[in-house]
Amino acid sequence: MAQYFTGTDYLLSLPVVLLTLFALGILLIDLMLPKQLKWVNAVTAFAGVLFATAGVWRIQAVYAKGAGGYLGRFAFMQSMLVDRFAIYFFYLFLAGTALAILISVRYLEIENEHHGEFYALMLLSVVGMMCMAAGYDIVLIFIGLELMAISTYVLVGFLRRDRRSNEAALKYLLLGAFSSGIFAYGLSLFYGLTGSTNLRAIGNALQHQMMVRNGHADPVAVLALITTATGLLFKIAAVPFHQWAPDAYEGAPTSITGFMSVAVKAAAWAMLLRILVFGLYPLRSVYLPLIIFVSIATMTGANLAALTQNNLKRLLAYSSIAHVGYMLLGLVALASVDYTQPAFYDGFKGILLYLMVYTFMNLGAFAVITSLRNREVIGDEIDDIAGLYFRAPTEAIMMLIFLLSLAGIPPLAGFYGKYFIFLSLIESKHYVLASLAVLYAVFGLYYYMRIANSMLMREPLEKELLPLSWGMRAALGVTAVATVFIGIFPNWFIEAVNWSLGLTQATPIAGLMK
Amino acid sequence: MPQNYVPIFIFIAIIGVLIPVTLLAAKLVRPDNPHKEKLMPYECGIDPVDSARGRYTVRFYIVAILFVVFDVETIFLFPWAVKFKAFGLFGLFEMLIFLGILIVGYIWIWKKGALEWV
Amino acid sequence: MLHLALFTIFGAVAVAGAVNLLVQRHPINSALSLIAVMASLSVEYLLLGAEFVAAVQVIVYAGAIMVLFVFVIMLLNAGEEELTRGSRVAILVGIPGVLIGAVLIAWTLVQHSGTGEVAIGALPGRPETIGWLLFHDFLLPFEVTSILVLIAIMGAVVLAGRPVPTSQQPRKEA
Questions:
Q1: ipTM
Q2: Contacts of B91 in chain C (CB under 8 A)
């Protein structure tokens, strides 16, 4: 029995195992901690993230020894595929989680809800994310998704005395469970159609069926694709499946809103790319019109709704939906060409780079909002940020950087995400979509500048200075430096994305689609 | 396989017939003489004063959901127990990991006081 | 023949129970018809040769989950559902919508030509085969499931069972 699993299997599950161990440790240690020492939990969680990062690093090192054209390793009877794509996402999740832990400590103390479960749930949701990014079997992907989603529902409702938090958790739970149901229905149809739960086997069987039917998709395959895609689009919060996002973002503890908008969203994207691009690649001509429609609807709906928002968290929720619209354009480009074309890789690169850049700039913006939370002030209205420049000039300038980056102003990181997506659109000859996207990007500038205007031009309502914890300082420093640094030296990061796509290798990522 | 369950289905079908038949037979045979006093609480009983449909405390819910969770855990023990010999020591460790994670959860809820009935 | 007849009968019971669940105004009645749906589904699984899933369906769904549902209904003391303008619109739009959706899905599934026939019991369904799949092919998903169950425990306690600090809310429940 034991001989079926080798050291490779265990090595590849190392980050997941480490995170689980640390989460369980936090649960047990938390029972022994007095109220003043709850910050120990945060330190333990942070250490867990560091250890998991070391585990990923170790996998990467062993991996790099492989010969050229070597794409990834399967583990646990092909239910897990740790390839460069997965490793890239592992790093993204861990970075997002580490930053979210840093900004949570003081916030939870102010809310008087500083419990160990908070950090344990965060770490366990990262376990779910890793299963989503590295899952090559729809069973593992689905369990990973539920693991991440259920922990997030609990984290959203963590402020038990806050009605908004409770309401948000309930709405998120109901819509999330509904979308998971639709998603599972689609996956079960694929299993019925192909007789396998493995993505590669599903892809091959679908390819074969397409060939038998002269390039036409089976109607059941179309039904399965539509239901699966609906579930996936729900999870990334694309219009018209976005209604849960603004409410959940507004009601959640602010540090969790940040966590949801980067790590959870990146995981949903990893799952979407895994399923739509790796597994269902033969059906790309079927889902292309769907994705085009959804991306236009997402950009239009989110940008229009963001114009009138007065709550910062809600505004950033709509902005994050708008960013999903831009990223979907990358998917449009990569699905409309063959994987031998440059547009395929530029679209893919755009999405991956966008997610990385977005992790830093969006979490930075949420860190600033989190720091506005005071004993008396909730600090998520646009009035609460008024005159921030006179209260905390450094923070205000950092916020300005994040906002300009979110708007995609050239020397900052946000520009490069959009750049590759627009490039891939032009390469795949979607000129109308490209110009529409540019138009909406200009649109976006307006509501980001509304925040900046309130921050820099208006008189502060509160006079007192903002106290910053060491964790918050560290998080703000890292996110701001990363946002500027990626903007000035994009090549290093583009190299990292190329690496994750295997472009530096004899067999690029497309090898997985054959 | 399903054929093995045919007796059970026949059994269920017989029950389905038997219950209405006996009820009907009883209705035809018994004397029918309704009276209001017969519905009153018997001798030492007390008359109901209020609706029985009050709100329950949330603690019942906690107990119920914990029951569901550990019920699901037990379900996983069945297929393992059936193939226990074939899995051997490795299977034992697989199950110990599974149970270990849940035992940590159990210790946690216990110490957290969620099982206490305040 | 008996097999097909039983499958059809219990399928009809499941659909009728589901419709009754929606039609009933009182949540307890809906919950009871959900038990009928669950039980007849478990018979369907049994007829398809999935013995283990059938047993799980009875133990977990018809047993444990239904207890939870009934507890929640008692907890909320939910009364009769009231008809509002919104629910009338939902009925007017929803019933045709559901019918169209059901017909579309059924039509699509009937259109599918490549369906092969499999003898009952040829596919994994017995506890032994499930055990083999669970502890060998799907070992990682299985272990991750235990984390999922742990999260469910934590979620229940965090959202509903954590004692509220007395300094904030001195009122105790009787």
A1: 0.90
A2: 135
